[in-house]
Design goal:
single chain, alpha+beta, 4-stranded antiparallel beta sheet, 5 helices, 4 strands
C-alpha cells in the first residue's frame, strides 16, 4: 500500500515525457507488463499535461463524454491567444459533435462519444499538433 502510493506520487511528479517513459520502463522491468489500468494512469498524466498546454483548467471524461473547462478568468489574455484560436478551429473542423457552452461561469468544450483514455490522448495530441502547426503557419 505504501509502495503503491509512492509509485503514484512518482508518476504524478514526472517532469516530462522522457521521465515518464523512463518510469514506465522501470515499472515494466520491475513487475513485467503493466496492466491496462496502469497504462490508463500514464495516459491520464499525459492528457492532463496536454490539457494544460492547450489552456484547459479541467478535463473530465465520464461515460465517454468529454468536458474541457477553459481558464476561469474571462478577461484572461489566453482567449486572445493563438492557442485558443487554434483549439477553436480544431474543435470546429475536426471534432464531430463538439459544442462550446458556458457552465458555472466557465467556458467549456464538450464532446460526445470520446470513448476512453486512449482516444482522449489521441484527440489532445492532435489538437496540440494542430495548434503548433497553426502557429507555425501564422
Amino acid at each position: 500500500s505504501t509502495e503503491r502510493l509512492t509509485l503514484y506520487y512518482r508518476l504524478d511528479n514526472c517532469a516530462g515525457e522522457e521521465e515518464l517513459a523512463d518510469f514506465h520502463r522501470e515499472l515494466t522491468d520491475r513487475v513485467g507488463p503493466v496492466p491496462d489500468q496502469v497504462e490508463d494512469l500514464f495516459r491520464t498524466v499525459r492528457c492532463r499535461r496536454l490539457g494544460v498546454e492547450l489552456g484547459f483548467e479541467r478535463l473530465v471524461l465520464k461515460q465517454g463524454r468529454l468536458r474541457c473547462s477553459f481558464v476561469s478568468n474571462p478577461e484572461s489574455p489566453y482567449f486572445e491567444s493563438p492557442v485558443f484560436q487554434a483549439v477553436m478551429r480544431f474543435a470546429d473542423t475536426r471534432m464531430v459533435g463538439a459544442r462550446l457552452k458556458e457552465a458555472n461561469r466557465h467556458l467549456q468544450l464538450s464532446v460526445e462519444d470520446v470513448g476512453g483514455m486512449s482516444r482522449l490522448l489521441e484527440i489532445l495530441s492532435s489538437m496540440r499538433d494542430f495548434a503548433a502547426s497553426d502557429a507555425a503557419l501564422a
